[in-house]
């Protein structure tokens, strides 16, 4: 309806205003996309053209040499493998824990639900902090143990609230009651009625958790020592920020330094693409998931 | 917290357990996990008041009162670190807070649905990129010899020698805040976008009948419509004034920008984990979270006095 009106009559003031709107959004889009396009172009360019400043928008001297170096680097492969494992196993564990916490506590006649909900949500307001957390992990014997990347933080309070709200407001109670009357157990109802109805929201939570694992860096920095357990982000930091090439270039000649610059861009692409692709593939579900998150209680 | 609670008054434990015994069993797992990884560490806070040694453990070490706090406040670095923390977070709050609001308001004016959702999709992308990569990209772009920015500045004749942006203390805050806006503007606008979508369309019509153009409608309908959301988020953000995140400051830190980049959280890491003064670092961390809690209580009280909106 609004659209129709605009077609009929656009006041002068509106035209000026709308020009500002589109200019602003144009600038925003360019500012967000340009660094990403540049990184991609640089990653498939001849590194000497990056260093000389010839690569500005599109690739120059097309080459995949950087990628083949990356995929021949032992540490990067280890990091990639570890990150994939932590992300897949960790996310499955997160989703499982979130479901088994959110479903019982979504029931109004579940005695104790306010106490248990409070126990989970209070962790958002207060925590022991970095050092007590470290000592706790140490006491549990989880230092330098890959499980430390999965077990703590099993349940995010925010995601718990989102899922609990979904169960409360979007899964029709009558359907559940009639299933129970028909003799289905609580677990069977959860498995065969509630979960199939929760596809989109579970997809959103999966993305949230997966991105968290993929990009996580702090736990590894704090709790892991052995290179064999390190996730990709730790190796990324070494190469992108600390200036160690992790054996991908050998010498300190000018050629090697130029090569090293090119490697950085290819590495960024390799690290970023999986999560951005996951987001783009699931983004249709996001709008719904976000609205539920906004209800909060 | 009241809003979060469902309430199950009037039901007896016996009845509830009989009906839901399987669900109670399931719930044991997440609750245990939360207790082990969130509540047990809270008991570790006591070492802020103890002479902690690994041999005696958290419970066995000697109490020494406020020794670590006194030491922290008599140290040379204390005010620099507190100042760095407060300045960095106040500056980032003031500068970056309006961006997602403006973005949401402006995006709302786009009537073409496909264009709108395309822009939104693009704006969300940086949220999925890790802090390590964002800082890494910045560092690559800003390198004095091979970075794009310096190359372009040199070509344009603005500078002759490449500038070491990442090393110089005077650029630290600008880079920290600028990259933060790049990374978060789109994602943070979600909450405003969803608040806008729940504004009553009749209000726009009324404004239009009164002769209000698109800009006036934005100013007099959309903006007031999301004002409660803005205030709520502002309160939340103010509560984190002392809580500058560890990751990004740590990743951007180097020996030359340390005078401005050392904030409380990175200081806790360096004295606690690197120098292994666990008790002292815990005291500094505890000081930080208590101040945070006090600030959020005060801000909430002020907000309550001046408007209907508050967190609880």
Plain-language structure description:
The complex is a heterodimer of chains A (297) and B (312). Chain A has 297 residues and is mainly α. Chain A folds into 2 domains: 2-64, no CATH class; 67-295, MetI-like (MetI-like fold, Orthogonal Bundle). In chain A, 72% of the residues lie in helices and 0% in strands. Chain A has 14 helices and no strands. Chain A has helices spanning 2-8, 12-43, 47-51, 65-70, 74-105, 113-125, 130-139, 157-170, 173-181, 186-197, 199-215, 218-223, 232-240, 254-295. In chain A, α9 (173-181) runs antiparallel to α10 and α13 (232-240) crosses α14 (254-295). Chain A is globular. Chain B is mainly alpha-helical and 312 residues long. Chain B has 2 domains: 13-63; 67-306, MetI-like fold (Orthogonal Bundle), CATH 1.10.3720.10. Helices cover 70% and strands 1% of the residues of chain B. Chain B has 16 helices and 2 strands. In chain B, strands 1-2 form a two-stranded antiparallel sheet. In chain B, α3 (67-74) crosses α16, α10 (190-197) packs across α12 and α12 (214-238) packs antiparallel against α16. Chain B is globular. Chain B starts with 12 loop residues before the first helix and ends in a 6-residue tail after the last helix. Residues 1-6 of chain B have low confidence and may be disordered. The chains are: A mainly alpha (297), B mainly alpha (312). The interface between A and B is large, with 104 and 100 residues.
Explain the layout of strands and helices.
The complex is a heterodimer of chains A (297) and B (312).
Chain A: H1 2-8, H2 12-43, H3 47-51, H4 65-70, H5 74-105, H6 113-125, H7 130-139, H8 157-170, H9 173-181, H10 186-197, H11 199-215, H12 218-223, H13 232-240, H14 254-295
Helix pairs in contact in A: 2-14, 5-8, 5-11, 5-13, 6-8, 8-11, 8-14, 9-10, 11-14, 13-14
Chain B: H1 13-43, E1 50-51, H2 57-60, E2 62-63, H3 67-74, H4 78-96, H5 98-108, H6 113-124, H7 131-141, H8 148-155, H9 169-188, H10 190-197, H11 201-209, H12 214-238, H13 246-252, H14 258-261, H15 264-274, H16 278-306
Antiparallel strand pairs in B: 1-2
Helix pairs in contact in B: 3-16, 4-9, 5-9, 5-10, 6-9, 10-12, 11-12, 12-16, 15-16
């Amino acid at each position: 309806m609004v659209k129709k009106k605009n077609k009929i009559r656009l006041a002068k003031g509106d035209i000026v205003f709308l020009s500002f709107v589109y200019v602003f959004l144009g600038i925003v889009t360019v500012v967000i996309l340009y660094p990403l396009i540049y990184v991609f172009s640089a990653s498939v360019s001849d590194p000497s053209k990056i260093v000389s400043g010839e690569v500005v928008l599109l690739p120059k001297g097309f080459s995949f040499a950087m990628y083949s170096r990356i995929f021949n680097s032992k540490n990067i492969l280890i990091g990639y493998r570890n990150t994939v494992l932590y992300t897949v196993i960790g996310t499955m564990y997160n989703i499982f824990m979130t479901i088994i916490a959110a479903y019982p506590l979504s029931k109004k006649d579940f005695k104790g639900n306010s106490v248990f909900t409070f126990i989970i949500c209070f962790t958002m307001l207060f925590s022991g902090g970095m050092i007590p957390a470290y000592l706790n992990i140490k006491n549990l014997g989880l230092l330098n143990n890959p499980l430390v990347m999965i077990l703590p933080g099993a349940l995010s309070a925010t995601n718990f609230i989102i899922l609990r709200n979904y169960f409360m407001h979007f899964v029709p109670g009558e359907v559940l009651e009639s299933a129970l009357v028909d003799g289905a157990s609580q677990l069977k109802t959860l498995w065969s009625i509630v979960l199939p109805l929760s596809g989109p929201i579970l997809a959103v939570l999966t993305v949230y958790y997966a991105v968290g694992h993929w990009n996580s860096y702090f736990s590894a920095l704090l709790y892991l020592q052995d290179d064999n357990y390190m996730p990709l982000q730790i190796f990324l930091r070494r190469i992108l920020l600390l200036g160690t090439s992790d054996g991908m270039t050998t010498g300190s000649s000018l050629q090697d330094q130029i090569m090293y610059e090119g490697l950085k861009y290819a590495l960024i692409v390799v690290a970023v693409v999986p999560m951005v692709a996951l987001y783009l593939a699931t983004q249709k579900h996001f709008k719904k998931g976000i609205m539920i998150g906004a209800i909060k209680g | 917290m009241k809003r979060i609670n469902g309430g199950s008054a009037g039901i007896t434990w016996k009845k509830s357990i009989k009906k839901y015994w399987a669900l109670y069993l399931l719930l044991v797992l997440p609750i245990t996990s939360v207790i082990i990884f969130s509540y047990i560490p809270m008991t570790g806070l006591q070492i802020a008041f103890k002479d902690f040694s690994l041999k005696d453990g958290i419970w066995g070490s000697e109490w020494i009162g406020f020794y670590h706090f006194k030491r922290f406040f008599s140290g040379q670095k204390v005010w620099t670190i507190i100042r760095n923390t407060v300045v960095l977070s106040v500056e980032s709050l003031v500068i970056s807070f309006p961006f997602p609001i403006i973005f949401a308001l402006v995006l709302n004016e786009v009537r073409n649905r496909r264009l709108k959702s395309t822009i939104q999709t693009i704006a969300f992308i940086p949220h999925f990129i890790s802090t390590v990569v964002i800082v890494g990209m910045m560092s690559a772009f800003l390198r004095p010899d091979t970075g794009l920015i310096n190359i372009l500045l040199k070509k344009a004749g603005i500078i002759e020698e490449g500038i070491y942006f990442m090393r110089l203390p005077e650029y630290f805050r600008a880079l920290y805040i600028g990259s933060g806006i790049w990374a978060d503007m789109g994602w943070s606008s979600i909450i405003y976008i969803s608040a806008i979508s729940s504004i009553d369309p009749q209000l726009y019509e009324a404004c239009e009948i009164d002769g209000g153009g698109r800009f006036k409608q934005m100013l007099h309908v959309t903006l007031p419509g999301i004002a409660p959301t803005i205030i709520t988020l502002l309160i939340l953000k103010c509560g984190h004034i002392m809580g500058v995140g560890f990751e990004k400051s740590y990743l951007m830190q180097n020996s030359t920008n340390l005078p401005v980049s050392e904030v409380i959280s990175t200081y806790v890491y360096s004295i606690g984990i690197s120098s292994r003064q666990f008790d002292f670092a815990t005291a500094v961390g505890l000081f930080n979270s208590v101040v945070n809690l006090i600030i959020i209580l005060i801000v909430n009280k002020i907000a309550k006095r001046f408007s209907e909106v508050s967190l609880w």
